[in-house]
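Hi support team,

I'm opening this ticket because the web form for multi-chain structure prediction keeps timing out on my end. I have pasted the exact lines I submitted so you can reproduce it. The total is 475 residues across two entries, so I didn't expect it to be a heavy job. Is there a limit I'm missing, or should I split the entries? Thanks in advance, R.K.
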Amino acid sequence: MFESLTELLNQNDIFTVATLLQYWDGLVTTVQLVFLSLVVGLVIAIPLAILQSLNNPFISKPIWLYVYVFRGTPLLIQLYIIYYGITYIDGIQESFWWHIFKDPFYPALIAFALNTAAYTTEIIRGSIAQTSRGEIEAAKAYGMSWWQMTRRIVLPSAFRRALPAYSNEVIFMLHASAIASVVTIVDLTGAAQNIYSRFYAPFEAFTFVALIYLCLTFLLVFIFRKLEARLLAHLRPRTH
Amino acid sequence: MELLNFHGYGPSILKGAVLTIEVAVLSLLLALFLGLGAAMAKLSKNRFLNFIATVYTTVIRGVPDLVLMLLIFFGAQIMVNNFSDWLYYSFDIEFFINIDAFVAGICTIGFIFGAYMAETFRGAYLAVDAGQIEAGKAYGMNARQIFIRILFPQMMRHALPGLGNNWMVLLKTTALVSVIGLADMVRLAKEASGAVHEPFKFFIPVAAVYLLITFISEVILKRLETRYSVGVSKP
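Hello R.K., no limit was hit. The queue was backed up. Here is the completed structure from your submission:
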């Protein structure tokens, strides 16, 4: 099996073991970048969404502004501001932070996380606002405190309702991560660009990477469909 | 005045802003055209058209914009080169086209967002009550009349929120044309900040221009939505 594969790979000039390994490294970088951004984004978004549902203008106005600015400007600009901007913070090149930030991976991670956090805040805020009044009244009637109510009643049902929109956001993030290649990160798109410029074969290089992205997208769609079927089972139309 | 001078880069960045708007509007038109076509193909009973439109919307929405842009920009150039080589060697005709970044950018963005528009239009079409179309037929209207008088005005009401969303995403996607070498405001800001070493000074005004366009679009969309919702009770 392995020999036949090597033989197959020897038949063409572009998709050799070496280039496939480049794609593999790119895939690992893309997955890491997307996964970490999503995790950090969620950690930022959940508290912001809860704070925004408190209806205190001093808290919700700044959060609204953050969400509006990050949703209203291109991710590429945000990435440029963070990637090029960090270099010019006074004294950063002498501090230990520089070891972290001279690698383009971390500025990209910050930009992506802040971007996805803004979108996710909006999604979760929306689904918290949709919580049915009856559920909240029931929680109050049980004598739950605000925190108990939020933790036990509001958030679990809000997360379920947010799932379809969040799955879109995850796929969007996967696609947006291609921008990382612009700041010299060798993610999947970066690997494709390297292979393109080495062999001058844009069709092969970019079509192959497009297929990988397509497979990743289908995988995500499949996972979220399973998750939705499980978590939103109570909302399915009854069949009997 | 000194504030708006931007080390002399102000005017060229303003030109870049105009280019951004041009790219956005032209690709929106292309996307609307392709989207309406693909939506009709998806809704038609023709199996072949159905299949083509489904492949189009699925594949485009599954691949990053940047990858498609690089594929079309670099790939199309090679295709044209091969074609002109073939013309030269077989027929001795000299014919050459250089793929322009402006055209490639608009084609790619229009092509990508056509897929998103198709889904919006399809959903809007399905949301129109079948009885309305039947009533049109009962009045003896032909397909064109039904479309213009009955289907389109009602479809727009359902489609507008989705179209508005797509427009906002499209506007932000135009920033990617800077990667394939088009001198839009993002690229000019990047070049200027590289030369002067002051990234914030250029990128933040450019971000503000995007916010301004988004804000104006929101206002216009709200007006359009009110206009197309006349005669429908608000929930």
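A quick check on our side: The interface with chain B takes residues 68-69, 72-78, 80-81, 84-85, 87-88, 174-179, 181-182, 189, 192-193, 196, 200, 202-203, 206-207, 209-210, 213-214, 217-218 of chain A (CB under 8 Å). Let us know if the file doesn't open in your viewer.
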